[in-house]
Amino acid sequence: MNPELNNELLGYRRPDGKVGVRNHVLILPTITCATQAAKQITELVQGTVSFIHQHGCAQVGEDYDQTFRTYVGMGLNPNVYGVVVLGLGCETHQARSVAGEIAKSGKPVEVVSIQDHGGTLMTIAEGARVAAKMVQDASAQRREPFDFSELIIGTECGGSDACSGLSANPAVGVVSDLVVDAGGTAILAETTELIGAEHLLAKRAVNEKVAKRVYEVIEKMESRAILMGVDIRTGNPSPGNIEGGLSSLEEKSLGASNKSGSRPLQELIDYAEYPTKKGLVWMDTPGHDIEQLTGMVAGGAQVVLFTSGRGTPTGSPIAPVIKISTNTAMFEKMRDNMDLNAGTIIEGEETIQAAGRRIFDEIKEVSSGKLTKSEVLKQHDFGIWRIGPTF
């Protein structure tokens, strides 16, 4: 452990020992029918966050399990002080089941049901009452020092351009190495956008089991596309990427994989799973920005680094998202949304290492309380990767 990195962050210690960089009270709707009531509660009670979604009922099998795991993971994220789980009452994903799993962490958890509480208005009133008490209790908690060994960062690549693999992505790779070297965890995601670069990651696997899993996950993602009659390896799925100057998905992948830095790949986990090892971890997610962001946050990421060559407003209701532009022209055009500019690398004003260190320093500031632009603008995006049909 580098002693220079110790105690440089300030966060909120949770009952299970984890540390959050935010202190949210989450209003968690387990069914789409409850999302509007959840939104009303957040408008009434300062210090609460929530999200809109279309899930929670008529799901079966692995698809049910993955959605359930995502709900629970959002509540368990260290950035959450306490949770009001809001259900309808008759849905597949029962609010009490979700609350029961979150409560095992020792966090304050309450359940409010629209059917049990006599309809929408009574539910909003009860939810707001419970949430207000949680927020007041949360406000009494003070930040305390912690170091990078307790931090999980998510890494994400949005719409790319010809600069992505040369500037922002390798700069994030430097950050990934710095966090790993400090004893922390860096999550690499976007399986779709690693197709064509899998052999490079397999070479860095800590053992043959992890290397084998790399190829299995890539093959499974390709098979999903083939079942739809699409050869995803030879085409680029995003018009924005093509307009940005990329010729193929493999070109996108070779640039996106740079976010992983150079350290060994410790494990490959499923969507919305919590890492079991420190170091570089790959989470199996789609390339869809919001779905992968949600998966990493549900997997415990307290901070997310999001590179973009096209510009994006994307944010999370729970985790601060630091957005990094790959070129200066886009950064100047979208200053409302982009936090940092790595276009300085392209212009020869900064090395990749220096830009990476600058991003690393920004993580320190954000982890200790500085708001990202997506937080200021209340960009609370949420979407679950569905792997099965609705019945």
Automatic annotation (TrEMBL):
D-galactarate/Altronate dehydratase C-terminal domain ranges (all copies): 149-389
Pfam families: GD_AH_C, GD_AH_second
InterPro entries to which the protein is assigned, alphabetical: GD_AH_C, GD_AH_second, UxaA_altronate/galactarate_dh
Protein name: UxaA family hydrolase
GO MF terms, alphabetically ordered: hydrolase activity; lyase activity
Native species: Fictibacillus marinisediminis
Keywords: Hydrolase, Lyase
Coiled-coil blocks: none
Residue ranges annotated for the D-galactarate/Altronate dehydratase second domain, each copy included: 11-138
Single GO biological process annotation from the record: D-galacturonate catabolic process
Source domain of life: Bacteria
Family: Belongs to the UxaA family.
